[in-house]
Amino acid sequence: MHELMKVSGVLDLANVESAVPRIASKSEIETSHDPDYVSIVEAISNGAIVPGMAEFGLGTSDNPVHSGMYETTALTVGSTLTASELVTSGKADIAFAPAGGVHHHAMPRSAAGFGVFNDAVIAMTAMVEAGLRVAYIDIDCHHGDGVQMGHYDSSQVLTISIHESGKWLFPGTGYTHEIGVGDGTGYSVNVPLAPYTQDDEWHEAFDAVIPPLVRAFKPDVLFTQLGIDTHYQDPLTHLSLTTQGFNLVVQKLGVLASEIGKWIAVGGGGYDLSAVARSWTMALATMANHDLPSEIPASFYSLQHLTKFADAPPERNEERFLKEIRSYNSKTLDEVRSLVFPKFRI
Ligand SMILES: [Zn+2]
Known about the structure:
Strand order of the largest sheet: 1-6-5-2-3-4
Distance between the termini: 39 Å
Low-confidence stretches: none
Largest sheet: 6 strands, parallel
Bound molecules: zinc ion
């Protein structure tokens, strides 16, 4: 990804600057995680054997332990905090921390789904403490359950996750009826979609609920998790987006961001590496308002055998499958409209 961003010239644009991330401090991590859990991650990272670590989600196939894991995760969290600070301080209108976001399943007391310390929750906690209202949009193929949990009772953070339904995919949550608790009731929104949903139907769902809710919420900051495991070649999931379908989402998020004035973007899941490199390079170019050529520079092609940023349009789903997909997705949209829209007088 970084190599493709470099050879495409995106990092050299006059309005793009690279920032060096700082490392998140332990006290910052502990704003959103139990100190016992944070200490266990630190001890394991330093080589200690901790019996019972599986209770904390550690040492599992999704969350193997390794030396130095505390420092690398703290640096990832720090990259999201650096991006947040650049935007909230007014030094930048938009900041993209592609290493962040993949921790969106991490819970206060446990690791989950490749996530150890939840950078998005930690960054948004700091923003809420500074009095800011944040709209979090998670377009990863998996439900952003850890982020939802992090601010489930708060009306200061609107979390919206659009994902492949938990009926078919990890973590098995993210249903429409999960709308928050207490003061946060109505401020958690879930848009579960049918497997094999393609660009057109995905965008239909996005357009129906996300812009109206964000506009009604009137946040101070837009925070987006840009997972690209929705890609049709992704080996772990079953949504069927193309890189150009993904980039169109980034363009739509950019329109919302321009109305709000502050946009922090992080990465997320993505297990087809060609899709990751191309999509996040396209995303950065979109954020910089720069038109990429359609061809990938030859110097990158020689390394990765890629020729174009966009995918060849995939075959459309057969009519009978499309009917099932549309019926599942429209039920989701009806439920979101009836459960959440009244709260925002939409
Ligand atoms: Zn994911």
